[in-house]
Design goal:
Radius of gyration: 17 Å
CATH class: Mainly Beta
Oligomer: single chain
InterPro entries: ConA-like_dom_sf
Number of domains: 1
Order of helices and strands: HEEEEEEEEEEEEEEEEEH
Number of strands: 17
Helix content: under 10%
Shape: globular
Distance between the termini: 70 Å
CATH topology: Jelly Rolls
Largest sheet: 10 strands, antiparallel
Strand content: 35-45%
Keywords: Signal
CATH superfamily: Exo-inulinase, domain 1
CATH architecture: Sandwich
Length: 241
């Protein structure tokens, strides 16, 4: 009987977990007004009467604001594969910050994987987003391979890994983690941090896109996000320099 149950669990594959029942985030001090010399351009703590009004999801039905057990509200991606079909192979679940276009960009965020465990368990952060076929993203995957735990560019064709360095994988569990992406278009540098804000987990150098929107999401997993702070130089200001 036990063997049959185990086989059934394995056959079912990884499944989303309700973010409301996941370990809650213990909120620290509010994100700083400046970071690495860049001013804060956007902040979302997902509280108030319209907590996610600043976001444009690729599939609104896939996202909702949920309250965790300590009363803290988070922006939860609740499904693995949404109704959105990207024009080229790239992530299915993206929530873009509207009305913020940046050149030099820093994304600073708390996030939580709400998936049962498996090798490609992951969440993503997006930057220099131009349109559905042109952008960068970071895939924080549990086990690294050419399609996981990499920095990618989407340039009118299926996503391409551009990482110069990465790790063996992102150590996902049920807890909250902190991530940061630092994008410097002048040099092409991209540095990605996970929990350790001193040593990058991934790096790349690329100048395909020099400005654009930022976003949160996943290739095809569920997760929760909070304390999203975006810093940087508005694209129009950078163009005028």
């Amino acid at each position: 009987m036990l063997s049959a149950l185990l086989f059934a669990a394995l056959a079912a594959g990884p499944e989303p977990v309700d973010a409301a029942n996941a370990p809650p985030l213990k909120r620290d001090a509010a994100p700083a007004e400046t970071l690495l010399g860049q001013p804060r351009a956007f902040l979302a703590a997902f509280e108030g009467s319209e907590p996610a009004a600043a976001f444009a999801p690729t599939d609104k039905k896939a996202w909702t604001v949920k309250q965790q057990s300590n009363g803290n509200s988070v922006y939860a991606l609740t499904v693995r594969v949404s109704d959105y079909k990207p024009p080229v192979r790239s992530p299915h679940n993206i929530a873009l910050v509207e009305d913020v276009q940046l050149a030099e960009t820093i994304i600073d965020v708390d996030f939580q994987s709400t998936m049962t465990d498996y090798g490609h368990r992951s969440l993503c952060l997006f930057f220099n987003y131009q349109d559905p076929s042109h952008f960068y993203y970071v895939h924080f995957g549990k086990e690294a391979d050419p399609h996981a735990n990499q920095i990618f560019v989407v340039n009118d064709k299926p996503r391409l890994a551009i990482s110069k360095t990465t790790t063996d994988g992102t150590p996902w569990d049920a807890e909250w983690h902190h991530a940061r992406v630092v994008r410097k278009p002048a040099t092409g540098e991209i540095s990605v941090y996970f929990d350790d804000m001193e040593t990058p987990a991934m790096t790349a150098v690329d100048k395909t896109f020099m400005h654009g929107q930022v976003g949160i999401g996943s290739f095809d997993d569920s997760g929760a996000f909070d304390n999203l702070a975006v810093y940087g130089t508005p694209a129009e200001d950078a163009a005028a320099e």
